[in-house]
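Progress report, Aim 2. The chain analyzed during this reporting quarter is listed below.
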Amino acid sequence: MKVSLFIPCLTDQFFPRVGVNLVKILRKVGATVDYPMEQTCCGQPAFNSGYHEEAIELAQRFLQVFHGAEYIVSPSGSCTSMVKVFYPEILQDRGLREVLSEVTSKTYEFSDFLVNVLEVKDLGVRFPHKVTYHDACHLLRELKVKEAPRELIRHVSGIEFVEMANSEACCGFGGTFSVKFPEISTAMAEDKAHAIAQSGAEYVVANDSSCLMQIGGYLSRKGIPTKPLHLAELLGENM
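Predicted structure tokens for the chain:
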């Protein structure tokens, strides 16, 4: 089994340990891991900002780079949803229909890939801490992935998993939304931080670094001791 890594911009530039741990996890389950060096941004920031021509150019590049991959796996529900859900909306060229279908059908967010494709839930991880989980919007609403990350968390030895109130509520990041509407974004982060604090968790886990950057920044500024942790880091660092 060969897996081609699809690493989002934020992971590449700010959270490289997420990518490193994803490699560790995939190798643990028997995958040969490949990183196509030609990959760039998937185009989501441009698409969400209304620059569809630029997004189409990046989408076409993505298809060229990942065409022929056995599996394409990413540690981001947001960027994965760009490929699987929004590429079919913006790529109307009939000549790309076959390769588009091939690439989107082979692209997975990593928890979905582990649990629903490989049927792996227990990675032999130990993490004796109390954690809660934040549902990232695109992972939940666009990809319909809710239980897979929770299954992986529940199979961690020594962990105490608690659901926060309104775990499905947006954290307020939303990419350029947080820049365009900072007051609304901050209010949403405040609500999320309150729910996290009320859970009593030592760590808040999510599957998107963008959400964790938003949440972690607010927690830090307000002196709330709960630490943000990507699921790939939780699993990979403690195997």
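The mean pLDDT is 97. The chain has two domains: 2-117, 130-236. These observations will guide the mutagenesis work planned for the next reporting period.
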